[in-house]
Amino acid sequence: MPTVIQALLNGPDSWGVTDEEQTLKYAVDDLGLEGDKSLFRGITINAPSAVVFRWLCQLRAAPYSYDLLDNFGRQSPRELTPGLENLSPGQTFMFIFNLERFETGKSISLRLNSFISLGGRMGDTALSYDIIDTGAESVRLLVKIVIKYAWGPLGWPTRLALPPGDLVMMRKQLFTIKELAERQAGTQSQTT
How far is the C-alpha of 146 from the C-alpha of 154, rounded, in Å? Predict the structure, then answer.
């Protein structure tokens, strides 16, 4: 498994995805954000799509990345929180995103909260988590992030910091979701 440093040295725009996966149509593409840059992330998870989707719903409760940095020092829940699977547009995810669209078992599309983006004056970001079944109780979890940078000098710090910062944080998030989904799938297969 490549380290964070190796991932950053390979370039912060894509991690864990093939060239072919970058050309796929993602759910975020339907949101219509004309971005300046797209970032891609991906991971294989040995669990059914329903289990992976349910863990994505947990992003309503916490970011599942480096909790000290992005969850006020509290550990992201390691058990499923009842009710978080009941999705509707507008719900908050990871404190800074709102749910735009979803397709149960397949995708979740989010957009940066307008309060955080100052109504778009600080740019805009949309992303989707897309689940691709690969058979045999295994999926590819693919993420596409579309970024519209703020105009002028306000956009430069984001241009420099967002791709590598996101790579570090989302890599950790995807590994955490993988661990929790695979643990649940293993528990389910033992009890059924």
Answer: 18
